[in-house]
Amino acid sequence: MSEDINENKTIQAQSSETISGGETGVAPDIDYVRPAELADQDLYHGHTFITKWVFCQDAKVIGVQYFLLATFTGIIGLILSWLMRLQLGFPGAAGFMTAEHYYQFVTMHGMIMVVYFLTALFLGGFGNYLIPLMTGARDMVFPYVNMVSFWMFFVAVGVLLASFFVPGGPTGSGWTLYPPQAILEGTPGSGMGIILMCVSLILFVAGFTMGGLNYLITILQARTRGMTLMRMPLTVWGIFTATVLAMLAFPALLVSALMMTLDKVLATSFFMPTILKAGEVLEYGGGTPILFQHLFWFFGHPEVYIVALPAFGIVSDLISVHSRKNIFGYRMMVWAIVVIGALSFFVWAHHMYVSGMHPWFGFFFATTTLIIAVPTAMKVYNWILTLWRGNIRLNTVMLWCLGFIVTFVNGGITGIFLGNVTVDVPLSDTYFVVAHFHMVMGIAPLMVIMGAVYHWFPLVAGRMLSEKLGKWHFWITFLGAYSIYFPMHYLGFIGVPRRYFEMYDSPYITSAVGMNQFISTSAFIVGAAQFILIYNIVVSLKIGKPAGKNPWQANSLEWLTPTVPPEHGNWGDKLPVVYRWPYDFSVPGAKEDFIPQTTPPSEVVETEVEKT
Amino acid sequence: MSSDPKIEGYKFKPGYSGMAADTASDQTMFKGVHWGKAMMWIFLLSDTFIFSCFLISYMKGRGSTPEEWPNPSEVFALNAFGVPVPLLLIAIMTFVLITSSGTMALAVKYGYERNRKMCGWLILATALGGLTFVGMQVFEWSKLIHEGVRPWENPFGAAQFGSFFFMITGFHGTHVSIGVIFLFIYAYKTFAGHYDEGKRGWFTTMKGDYVEIEILGLYWHFVDLVWVFIFAFFYLW
Question: What's the number of domains chain B is made of?
């Protein structure tokens, strides 16, 4: 082949993938796509304000609703983290802050950020908006249930926030809610607080299941003609696998929350051993607290990947579009996502190394944990190789993607430390752990969310966000996040324990005082910087540059709708037909540096470009 | 739409690589399968995990409580003509529930044959079977409560016996009850001809189709299957 190319003056565009259609013996029709298997979807179009914007069945509106509500709860989580940092950096500066309040804020911050912010934002927000658009469906397969899913989430958030206003306040048992202390007197919010937390989690799981079934079945059974599994954007793969994890991991959370509620309300002893309190035997007895830890972490570890896998998928697409190159090793990326998802069910007990487990048990979980590093590292290499010699557009979106790679590698490496039992035991319950998980599943996915917001805002709103504000936002957040979490690793090494309200006079860690002040100050700045984004969005909605169609010259279907922003039903009269994967960037010989998924091979092959 | 997995113009490819290609092909992964059926299967997979968590917790709880576990063949015995017969009630309950699975399967068959009357009566029979099951469960619960078994204690031994028993059979009974409610609704819709005319659903605004009966049937068979496991773990262990 190479000799032929050398002899010809022109290059024929080599489409990366064409459908092998047509019968043998007949001249093959390279544009052949099988006829539609299913009848067009029969949608309910709302006419009133309520059916169009409130109880709306359009996945795009539901996605935006999810996004806004999750962001709202996220801001509450952010404010709680400010209050915590205020106490840690400058003890006593906030007069009302007691140790009880501090524990309540720690708990609510953790639970809100992991479940009600990140999970809801990635799967509920991006999932709803992007899945039908990217797979070429008109909507989710069961729009009514999808709508109910959001309103269940709404109620769950309401119940969660109601716990701030009940006697005793919200639960203060840490986001892991370990019994027996979570429901015993002495722990803040051990009355109504913990009950409302459990009820809220049960509602969240029920609501999420309704949405999750829609995401999965829309991807499996409602793709458009030509959209094979291996032509789906990695965003869809990431959200798909994360949803599978959620469908299999949330049951454990549901069961543990239900059993905890019964322990509290009916005084059963699922998780409660015999307890002596001030010489008095409590009514509990015979239960096993370790069971809760197993159930919780059987949910808890896949939960990490429920947050991470959509981020992996989205960042792959963003990097590919903005470096004008196909994603390196697409199939490897898909399989890495699937393998990481599968492995994530076999590592949960690495959160329990100090629970008194048998050393061989810990050895097994250390091994599985370290094996996950292999597919994860593959993904990181592939992102870097996608960037390698790409035509990089160093815009805000790309900056967030680069920020993600750096923070993710950083947090991942400390994960390898903590995966080993012998290293983990001394570092357990120190700020090293806090730094690790904030870096790897806080900051890194957040970078992707920010990148995704700057990338898809033009699609949702039809206007561009301000690049200038975006760059300010990125640099403050990126440098600030490092100022927060880098010193925290050191705090962990010198043995500062996490979850302590105040260190008082601890001579062995005097060096932590100044560092805590520095971290807190950075946290205030980084938190405040997030309001740049909100300002940017509000202003750009009014005066942003009109985006027009496909402002990033992307290939995937969501940019190829007849109207921008897309209307209910997405595709107008005719569903799109897909001929290729979404990564045909800079194809040699093609006229433009991108070939949208709907461009038939014949159109590409017929263009001939002179060799330069 | 029938449950015939053939798609016009689509030929399944031979061998494992063909199977992989068919699975990864465009539009649908499960060829000719109604989306609702696929959705029910995935939901049931998730529900399987819920019940597995319950039963594994039960095994762990039973294994680690220091007090003695009550003897199921004594606790669950029923006096018939003055003789305590172990597991008598449970045997009848199980028989009724499994039989209702059979009538459900027949209802699906008559539904696809568009035999509206037979289909409706069989759904009704299934619903009555489910109702009988729940009724007997209520009887069993009241008997145990009468004997002093509570979620937090029981006179026969470990307190966890009552906790797990009421929680797990209660969760399963809730599943059966929800199924019974839907069976009654579907029986009404069948008799009223909603599936023949494709009448739109009250809330979902989707056109009715006999496939819905098969989807509900999947759920019903699953609930029965779960009962078999609960039966084995609670009453036979």
Answer: 2
What is the spatial distance between Cα A212 and Cα A152, in angstroms, rounded to a whole number?
A: 13
pLDDT at A97 over 80: yes
Q: For position B2, what pLDDT does the model report?
A: 42
- State the smallest CA–CA distance between residue A179 and chain B in angstroms: 15
Residue B226, min C-alpha distance to chain A (Å): 15
| The total number of structural domains that make up chain A | 1
Residue of B nearest to A35 (CA): B9
Pair (B79, B26) in one structural domain: no
B215: CATH:
1.20.120.80
B49–A248: do the CB atoms touch at under 8 Å?
yes
Q: Is B64 part of the contact surface with chain A (CB cutoff 8 Å)? A: yes
Nearest to B35 among A34, A221, A283 (CB): A221
Task: Answer whether A318's CB lies under 8 Å from A397's CB.
Answer: yes
Structural domain boundaries, residue B167: 34-236
Whether B63 and B77 share a structural domain = yes
Convert the pLDDT of each residue in A271-326 to its tens digit.
Answer: 999 999 888 888 898 899 999 999 999 999 999 999 999 999 999 999 999 999 99
Mean model confidence pLDDT for chain A: 91
Clarify whether residues B8 and B87 are in a common domain: no
* Residues of chain B with C-beta less than 8 angstroms from the C-beta of A250: 46
Rounded Cα distance, A470 and A532, in Å:
8
Q: Which of A262, A283, A286 is nearest residue B158 as measured by Cβ atoms?
A: A286
The encoded tokens of residue A172 equal 């203060």
Give B33's contacts in chain A (Cβ within 8 Å). Answer: 221
| Domain membership of residue A392 as a residue range | 55-600
Nearest residue of B to residue A295, measured between CA atoms: B53
**One domain for residues B18 and B94:** no
Give, as one character, the DSSP assignment of residue B157. Answer: S
- At residue B3 the predicted structure's pLDDT band, cuts being 50, 70 and 90, is very low
Q: Examine residue A448 and state whether it is found in any structural domain, yes or no.
A: yes
Q: Does A166 fall in a domain?
A: yes
Kindly state whether residue A349 falls inside one of the protein's structural domains: yes
A546 strand-pairing partners = A463
Domain co-membership, B27 together with B127 = no
Cβ pair B39:A217 closer than 8 A: yes
A221 Cβ under 8 Å from any chain B Cβ: yes
In the predicted model, what is the mean pLDDT of residues A65-80? 97
Give the integer Cα–Cα distance in Å for B66 and B53: 22
CB contact under 8 A, A142 and B204: yes
Note the pTM of the prediction, 2 decimals: 0.94
| H-type alpha helices, A22-58 | 49
Asked whether residue A137 is assigned to any structural domain, the reply reads yes
If you average pLDDT over every residue of chain B, what do you get?
91
Which residues of A fall within a CB distance of 8 Å from B151?
Answer: 262, 266-268
What is the three-class DSSP state of A216?
A: helix
Cβ within 8 Å, pair B151-A268:
yes
Q: Are B29 and B41 within one domain?
A: no
Give dist(CA B10, CA A120) in Å, integer: 38
Say what the alpha-carbon torsion angle A42, A46, A50, A53 is, to the nearest 10 degrees: 80
Min Cα distance A298 → chain B (Å) is: 10
- CB-based contact, B30 to chain A, within 8 Å: yes
Same domain for B4 and B113, yes or no, is no
Rounded CA gap, B138 and A117, in Å?
Answer: 41
My answer on whether B1 and B75 are in the same domain is: no
CATH of the domain at A146: 1.20.210.10
Q: Which residues contact A569 (CB under 8 A, 6 or more apart)?
A: A43, A45, A138, A139
Determine contact: A210 vs chain B, CB below 8 A: no
DSSP β-bridge partners for residue B153: B150
Question: Comparing C-alpha atoms, which of A5, A11, A1, A4 is closest to residue A610?
Answer: A11
Q: What is the pLDDT of residues B190-208, one digit of tens each?
A: 999 999 888 888 888 888 8
Residues 121-150, chain A, touching B (beta carbon < 8 A): 141-142, 144-145
> Testing the interface with A: which of B19, B31, B57, B161 to mutate, by most A Cβ within 10 A?
B57
**pLDDT class for A441, splitting at 50, 70, 90?**
very high
